[in-house]
Amino acid sequence: xxxxxxxxxxxxxxxxxxxxxxxxxxxxxxxxxxxxxxxxxxxxxxxxxxxxxxxxxxxxxxxxxxxxxxxxxxxxxxxxxxxxxxxxxxxxxxxxxxxxxxxxxxxxxxxxxxxxxxxxxxxxxxxxxxxxxxxxxxxxxxxxxxxxxxxxxxxxxxxxxxxxxxxxxxxxxxxxxxxxxxx
Length: 183
Ligand code: GRF
What we know:
4-stranded mixed beta sheet, alpha/beta, 3-stranded parallel beta sheet, 2 domains, binds 5-O-phosphono-beta-D-ribofuranosylamine
């Protein structure tokens, strides 16, 4: 699993009994601590830059190398904050999953919840998909709608969406592991 944030979806996946070989993060974060607490191997593959000097291909190659060392079958992104490029897709293409807090193809990108709220949609949701080379693209495996309520803030709406992701993502991963949902 790849995380950058609080790791609440990681927790849900672990609690659902999905076997997690290793949790990788691109920065120090709560998700990494939660994984270590749960007794899972962790690796910090830290980004050395967050500006134009960042070498995305080199980082993707480094990440792929660490994942290959752990002999993983499936890469599960859960709030991972680095866009991955060709070297990761060369190594794991078609076997990288993502959950996005909007109904793709609407509201791609890092601020999906904020953008949906700003647009004024009455319904948004989450999407579990196979990661394509372009951000928030790739075959959709599961989607579920979530209502936007009149008093919602970005935080309240995101939490309502995450409550669904914590159920839908593990269920989708389980289907894949059981061979019911082919990648
Ligand atoms: C989720 O909403 C996911 O869709 C998005 O980042 C959030 C991760 O939540 N990409 P958490 O860090 O697992 O709580």
